[in-house]
Write a structure and sequence with these properties.
736 residues; alpha/beta; GIY-YIG endonuclease; Rossmann fold; 5 domains; 7-stranded parallel β-sheet; 6-stranded parallel β-sheet; 22 helices; 31 strands; binds adenosine-5'-diphosphate; binds zinc ion; primosome
Length: 736
């Protein structure tokens, strides 16, 4: 050993590389565990995190490289962060270093020191408060929108303002020229609402019971399922719980939400009702600088409440004492690439390790969660009344589409109901189940349907733009006029996409103001929140949209929900399809009649007697779930058995098949209780020009699956085909 090697410290550094384990480097300066460092790795420089410090290394001292740089002015990562990501990397069979680095904000993965940009927030000063909106010309919609938002919500950050309109800066400038606006520099996320609300509604019995039960056991790990129908006041319960657990201490709470579209309303309510607690949000719509800033505020314990999407479950929170997972059944909690973790499940693990309570809220819990609540592993709190007494549950009715004359996909009862709403000045929502609803190009003579050349899927007609698009790979081509199969020159789009529906409605109800909300119309940043603002402002009569609209948006003037085509999901081979459809319909039904106006839900279907619709009518989640669980038990699906998938794809199927067969054979040679099937092709055999295959594992315990995967994954990584194909392990897959 050389002189200098003896005195240097050995750092165990986690790096963003697809290899197991951590890497040894030496440092002649003191470096702490949890610090970021820059190290040489192959020909490049890489950012890493020091996860441990040792006295010696298995690598010969002469070969040991030194770190290039360390960032000692930055707050260090705590050990909980490491151990949680280590657990997840092991459980989800993903390289630890990659798991760890990808849980950091992007700015911390760069080799530069990380700094956040300065931000401002704005509010109406006295002059602005006493101003009249009529002083703003009616055609200055952006100015009016900003004015109204500031008046209702108090202080708004730049991020919040940009959600109102992309041209908010111009609008705000105009208001400022009137002398109505004051401003202040802020820590990006912390802006609190100026107009705090101290209106505390009196809790009803169900709410009071829920709050009391949870608070009684707040000092230890305990998962709770808060099963409450839409409008039953779950958010109010969250607010009371946070008030109680954050009072008089420095503790922190983490609130997970499925998609960021949900956050503005929840966030605004939290900010007005909990103004004394610094609150930050964490989601992918934030700029990198703001995201880093918010993350730091969480990591250093300044932020007391963190509202975030999936990835924020890993945020370091030194004083975390309470967790909430809102809409816990939502599929967006599952990451679908890289490390395929489920944020709700990770949150449960985190709560257990920290020995703190966790509340899972939903109107339609995941069957796994429901099962745990029924078996007593989770506490079950039920709220079956709407919180606002005059707000009634919507009437749910089915229209048997096989018995009526349809007009371009719309039934006479639905058209009539739309007309009535229009006359009353109320809003309607037409809900389309995305799957099985897209219009395709069909040849009536030979039944040829325009296919995607790169995927096993059909191209979707986008009539207005005049092209066909694949919704799986994004491939686009012009609409062909002549059938390439039989020469028929009279090709027609069939099916009712959102665009065609919009056109049909415009024809049937020319006076209606129609707004289409789907993936196409909301592609632009902030497009969705602008649209939602327009709906709130009463600028829209009929909303046409996909499941994007089903989530917690609260439209008080919406009294009719029409559901257009659900039948394909009733009989889908995907084992979770029925559960999802039920959740979607419950949620979408919850949009109707939120305020004092009774709502109506009209479902068009060929199967009006299906048990799913009966359950929906009676709002009987429990009975319906019991039926589905029975089916799952017979089929040996979760939550009765545990599953894992190996997914693989390549330019041709041969190597995929050989790789998966190797995995299957290797597993069968192990002494294991887990079952492995034969490699198969998934429903979508080709995707983006890649031939796909998968291998299913099944076991009665998580443990048995873990044992198999832990032995298998390293062998797969070492396999000669491993680098020639793309493959991944998906533990607890959502679908297969
Ligand atoms: P959920 O989150 O379950 O959909 P919310 O918490 O949004 O329900 O409550 C629905 C509506 O009822 C909201 O407008 C809320 O302000 C109101 N609300 C909730 N609890 C009460 C209560 N105890 N008394 C009066 N209004 C309430
Ligand atoms: Zn395609
Ligand atoms: Zn043809």
């Amino acid at each position: 050993m050389t002189e200098s090697a003896q005195h240097a410290t050995i750092l165990k550094v986690a790096l963003d590389v697809p290899l197991d384990g951590v890497f040894d480097y030496r440092s002649d300066v003191p470096v702490q565990v949890g610090q970021r460092v820059v190290v040489p790795f192959g020909p490049r420089k890489q950012v890493g995190v020091v996860v441990d410090i040792a006295d010696n290394s298995e690598i010969a001292p002469a070969k040991l490289k030194s770190i290039l740089q360390h960032f000692d002015h930055e707050p260090v990562l705590d050990s909980e962060f490491f151990s949680l990501l280590k657990f997840c990397a092991d459980y989800y069979q993903y390289p630890y270093g990659q798991a760890l680095l990808s849980a950091l904000p992007a700015r911390l993965r760069q080799t530069e020191p990380a700094q956040a940009r300065q931000q401002f927030c704005y509010w109406l000063n006295e002059a602005g408060q006493s101003a009249d909106i009529e002083a703003i010309p009616a055609r200055q919609m952006v100015q009016r929108r900003i004015f109204t938002a500031l008046r209702e919500r108090g202080r708004l950050s730049e991020a919040e303002l940009s959600e109102l309109s992309p041209s908010w800066r111009k609008g705000l400038l105009a208001l400022r020229e009137q002398g109505w606006i004051d401003e202040e520099q802020i820590y990006a996320g912390l802006s609190a609402t100026l107009h705090a609300s101290n209106v505390q509604p009196e809790l009803n019995d169900e709410q009071a019971h829920a709050v009391q039960s949870i608070l009684q056991q707040r000092e230890r790990f305990k998962p709770w399922l808060l099963h409450g129908i839409t409008g039953s006041g779950k958010t109010e319960v969250y607010i009371r719980l946070l008030q109680a657990v954050l009072e008089g201490n420095q503790d922190q709470a983490l609130v997970l939400v499925p998609e960021i579209n949900l956050t503005p309303q929840l966030e605004a309510r939290f900010r007005t009702r909990l103004p004394q607690y610094p609150l930050v949000t964490l989601h992918s719509n934030l700029g990198e600088s703001e995201r880093l800033q918010n993350w730091r505020l969480a990591q250093t314990g300044v932020a007391r409440i963190v509202i975030g999407t999936r990835l924020s479950v890993f945020t370091p929170l030194p004083r975390l004492k309470f967790m909430i997972v809102d809409e816990e059944h939502d599929t967006s909690y599952k990451q679908q690439d890289s490390m395929r973790y489920h944020a709700r499940d990770v949150a449960l693990v985190r709560a257990q390790r920290r020995n703190i309570p966790i509340v899972l809220g939903s109107a339609t819990p995941a069957l796994e969660t429901w099962h745990n609540a029924q078996s007593g592993r989770y506490g079950l709190l039920s709220m079956q009344q709407r919180a606002v007494s005059q707000s009634q549950l919507p009437q749910v009715n089915c229209v048997d589409v096989s018995r009526v004359q349809m007009q371009e996909g719309l039934s006479p009862p639905l058209i009539k109901a739309l007309k009535t709403r229009l006359q009353r000045g109320e809003q309607s929502l037409l809900f389309i189940n995305r799957r099985g609803y897209a219009p395709v190009l069909l040849c009536n003579a030979c039944h040829w349907i325009a296919p995607c050349m790169r995927c096993s899927s059909r191209l979707v007609v986008h009539l207005r733009q005049g092209f066909l698009r694949c919704h799986h790979c994004g491939h686009e081509q012009k609409i062909v006029r002549q059938c390439p199969s039989c020469g028929n020159a009279d090709l027609h789009p069939t099916g009712h996409g959102t665009q065609r529906l919009e056109e049909t409605l415009a024809k049937l109800l020319p006076e209606a103001r129609i707004l289409r909300v789907d993936r196409d119309s909301t592609r632009r940043k902030h497009a969705l929140s602008e649209m939602l603002s327009a709906v709130h402002a009463g600028e829209v009569d009929i909303l046409v949209g996909t499941q994007m609209l089903a989530k917690g948006h609260d439209f008080p003037n919406l009294t009719l929900v029409g559901v257009l085509d659900t039948d394909s999901a009733l009989f889908s081979p995907d084992f979770r399809a029925a559960e999802r459809l039920f959740a979607q319909l419950m949620q979408v039904a919850g949009r109707a009649g939120r305020a004092d106006k009774p709502g109506e839900v009209l479902i068009q279907t060929t199967f009006p007697e299906h048990q799913l619709f009966n359950a929906l009518r009676s709002q009987e989640y429990g009975t319906y779930a019991a039926g589905l669980l029975q089916e799952r038990e017979i089929a040996q699906f979760p939550p009765y058995e545990f599953l894992a998938l190996i997914k693989a794809e390549a330019n041709e199927y041969g190597p995929v098949q050989r790789f998966l067969q190797f995995a299957a054979d290797t597993t069968r040679a192990m002494a294991t209780d887990a079952l492995v099937y034969d490699p198969i092709r998934p429903q979508m055999e080709r995707l983006k020009g890649m031939e796909r295959g998968q291998l299913l594992f099944q076991a009665t315990t998580r443990q048995a699956l873990q044992i198999v995967l832990r032995q298998l994954t390293p062998q797969l990584r070492a396999h000669p085909l491993s680098n020639k194909i793309r493959w991944a392990v998906d533990v607890d897959p959502q679908e297969f």
